[in-house]
Each structure stands twice: as structure tokens, then as C-alpha cells.
Design goal:
The complex is a heterotrimer of chains A (240), B (225) and C (43). By secondary structure, chain B is mainly α. Chain B contains 9 helices and no strands. Helices cover 83% and strands 0% of the residues of chain B. Chain C is built from 1 helix and no strands. Classes of the chains: A mainly alpha (240), B mainly alpha (225), C mainly alpha (43).
Amino acid sequence: MKRAFSIFSVITAVLLVYGLYQALVGAPTERTMGDVQRIFYYHVPSAWTAFCLFLTNLVASIIYLIRKSAWADALAVAAAEVGVVFCTIVLITGPIWARPVWGIWWTWDVRLTTTLVLWLIYVSYLVLRRFSDTAQTPILAAVLAIFGALDVPLVYFSIWFFRTQHPQPVMGRGGSLDPRMLHAFLINLLAFSCFGAMVCWARFRLEQLKRDVDQAHAMESLAGASEPAKASLPLSRSSR
Amino acid sequence: MNSFWDLMLATLVKDIRLEWRSKDALNSMLFFSLLVVVIFSFSFDPNAEESRQIAGGLVWVAFLFASVVALNQTWARELRNQVLDAYRVSPAPANALFLAKALGNFIFVILLEAVMTPLFIVFYNLRALGPAWQLIPVGVLGTWALVVNGTFFAALSLRTRSREIMLPLLLFPISIPAIQGMVEATRILLAGDGSARFWIVLLLTYDVVFTTACLGLFGTILHAE
Amino acid sequence: MNALAFLFAAYIATWVIHAFYLGTLVRRFSKLRQQMKELGKGK
């Protein structure tokens, strides 16, 4: 398992480096936006990876609610945390791209706003996990994930309608993609997907290690607690 | 089926009676609502046209904060008297308890809104240019949207540290589409700027989806172990 | 070339955030392994 992870990491690193080269050098400069458009090769793959991770969290949460498997809960935590990291990057690269191109930092664009709401929901998910450290926490968090999933289509739909009433600048790439641009985009999409999966796997292993340590701690304190109990037995039992 | 409604009504009536006898929470909430309206009036002093555009947002943000204060004490009495533990071991349907709590909160918050609304109308010189009667379904659906999720997340927050801050932290992100619906619908109806139909349908959809989710999952979080 | 500054800001921000997060993972891993070792010795 460890060897497979190492090989996968190397492949991912190679893909990322190649993707970086393609994004900055290989792909041609866009006509209307100029070189700033290259942020697109990082912004959209990050968004894709974040959404995949949040979807993983939702599926893991549902599996946990049905089967109560510990691994499902560990995966849910991992996917949520790594998803928030990628989502943060989407929300930072988005405005950095928008400012020079459209002159504004933010717009209530459907995709960007939905991303913001997803980020808020999953940050609240992580806060719930941090502020609740009981045996019920996994169930509570899984329920929150389901509520979040129900919310997202409503968010998307309501902002979409709001936009038809209040037209705002559209943030997007516009026009068709040159084949070299498509190549750069797809390479970065693959690279970041692999990178996201890799980091999520690492976080998952970390969570499992944490649970093993917690369990070992508990066993040790149980073993320690039984010592004085044995010592007091002769006093309470006349049979010895 | 009979016992479900009986249990729900009994719990609801008991809560209202207890609240009415003490009037503690009611009085402090009413005063709090008045303070919120006054502070907002000092902070935002728009002219008549601007008022109609922003009043929707102001009013609903004020209601939202007032609701959170009300929602935070939803389960306080139950916690003090170990009622929730009793529910966990009894065969009584958990949803009857949830529905009673949600309806109790709903009545409470509607009461607050009924007090705050005339004050807003006075302070902001509001006059609806659109069909004002539509503000009633907006108010009812919007309030239910906040209260149903709020009551659920209040129960969810019971087993967390910093319970009082956990509730709004969980409630606000999930409520965003509902808040957008309430604010936009109110703005449209006050400014006479087209039809609020889409937003009312959105609020109705939100209410149906989340009432179902709350009823479906309340048992899970009550019996979580 | 002000626009290029934005381009590099975005790429650098991306990798700084990823490096920071991976750093926290490494730190948490080593802390847990340390605890595991101590528990093993205690037994």
C-alpha cells in the first residue's frame, strides 16, 4: 500500500509539473484576456476537485448513516477538510482573475456564489466536528452533510434566477478553446484530480492513525485503572 | 396516527402555557426586537425610494437575529429536566416532539415579527407599491424556513461546545437560498418591481424539502449513540 | 505588465496554500507517530 502511494505521488508530481509548464508556456496566450487568462488552468480544475471531494464526503456520510462503518466516517472527515482547502483556492483565484479582466473583485455569478455557499457549509461542517467530540459526532456531521447537499441545488437555482433579473458581468472563458488550450486544461484537470485524491488519501490515513492512537490511549487508561481496583479486592472480598 | 397529533398538541400547548405563565422569554425578546429596529434605524437612514429597495434586507436580517435568540432556548427546558432522555427510551414518536417545538418557535417568532413590522413601517415610512397581501405568504413561508431548520440545528447543537454560537454557524449557510427568497420577494412587493411569484415558489420548495429532511432525520439525531 | 502580477499571485497563492496544508498534515503525522511510540514503550 505504501509503495503504491509513493508511485502515485511521483506520477501526480510529474503531472503537476507538466501541467504547470503547459499552463504557463505550452498554451497560447488568449486574445481578449491576455496572459491573466492562464489562471483558468488552475481555477477550474481546483473547483472540479473540490466538488468531487464534497461529493465523496456526501457519499461517505450516507454510507456511515446506513452502515455505521468507521472507515466511512474517517473518509468523510478527510474529504471535507481537503475539499475546503481546494475550495478556498477556488475562491481566492477567482477574484484574482476577475479583477484585471472584468475590473471587479467579486460578482454574484452563479458558479462563484454556489462555491462560496458550499465553502460556508463545509466550514460549518468542520466547526461542528471540532466543537463536538462525542460518540454522536459522526452521525450529527453526516446529517449536516445531507442538509448541505439538499441546499446546494436550491442555492444554484435561486442565484440563477436572481441573475436573470439583475444582469451582472459573466465570469467565464468565453468562446471556444484552441486545442493546445484544451490540452493544457485537461492535463491540469487530471493532475489536480490525482493531487486531490492523493491528499485526501493521506488525510484519511492520518484520521485512521489518530483513531488508533485514541484507542490505544483508552486501552492504556483502562489497564492503569484496573490496578488500584485489584489492590482493593482483598478488602472487599473475604474469600481471598 | 391519533397519538402522534395528540402528543404534538399536548407538548405545544404545554410549552405555550409555560411560556405565557412566566413571560420572561417573551418580554425580553420583545424588548430585544425593539432595540434591533431602533439600532437599524440609526445605522441606515435612507430616503423613501431607497427604503423600499433595502427594507426587505433590513427587516429579514433583524428577524433572523431575533429568531436566533429565540431558537437558542428551544431545548433549554428539556435539557434541564432530562426530557430528551425520556423520549429516547419511550416509544413516543420523536417527530411529535420536533413538530411541537418547531410550531412553538414559529408562533413565537411570528409574534415578534408582528411587533417589529409596524415599527419598521413607522421608522422607514414604508408603503407597499406592489400587492401587499403577498407579504403574508412571504412572511409565513420565510419564518417557517428559518424556524424549522433552526429548531433542528438547535437540537443538533445540544451535544457541542459553545452551543449558542453553533446554532447560527450551522443555520446561516443552509438558510441562504431562503433568505435570498424572503429579501427579494419583500423588495419586489415593496417597490412594485415585477412579480414575486418565483421567490414565493422557491420559499415553498425550500420549506417542503427541509421540513421533510428535518422530520426524516430528527429521530436519527435524537437516538444517536 | 500589471496583469502578469495577478497571474503569478494566483499561482503562488495556490501553491502556498497547498504547501501550508501539507505541512500541517506532516506535523500531525509526526506528532501521532510520536504518541504511538510512547504508548508502545509504556506497555
